[in-house]
Amino acid sequence: MAVTAELKGRDALMRRLNQLAPNVEKYAAQAKLEVAEEAAEMMRERAPTGATLEYRESFSGELLANNPNKQQVGLSQTKDPSAAGVFAKYIWRFLEFGTAPHSTVKGGGTVLGKKNAAAGGKGMHPGTAAQPHIFPTWRAYKKKASARIRTAVNKAVREAMGKG
User: Fold this and answer.
1) Which of helix, strand or coil describes residue 128?
2) d(Cα 117, Cα 140) in Å, to the nearest integer?
3) CA-to-CA dists, residue 74 to 8, 43, 86, angstroms
4) Per residue in 43-61, pLDDT tens?
């Protein structure tokens, strides 16, 4: 059985931590950005290729603050000013999870359109198979990413204590 915990009072914790070790946020922010960039590179390597490499080259690891109009997937909005993430073209969802067969003709999404498409067979898209490359890559990398951020925080604490 997994135990989960929710951190309440993050601001107070970070204030206290910054009093004890002032470089924690700086080192952690740099480590988060490096982790996002490395994860983006790993996902880029595993991304499916098409006629062009446009989708594959769209992966980038950046700070969330630098991309305010981008939608976050898989998590709630964060208050962390140094949070980083991986960004890619919007079609990643279709490639990652695949699509079901569907009508592409005008009015094809209506009941009548579906009947006409099924009867005539025109304008039907066969769907696409899932090509998972984002979430499996992140699951494989997550432990190493956490360790890298934890190492950066520990380095800042050791420096503050005069041991580094």
Assistant:
1) strand
2) 42
3) 20, 16, 12
4) 999 999 888 889 999 999 9
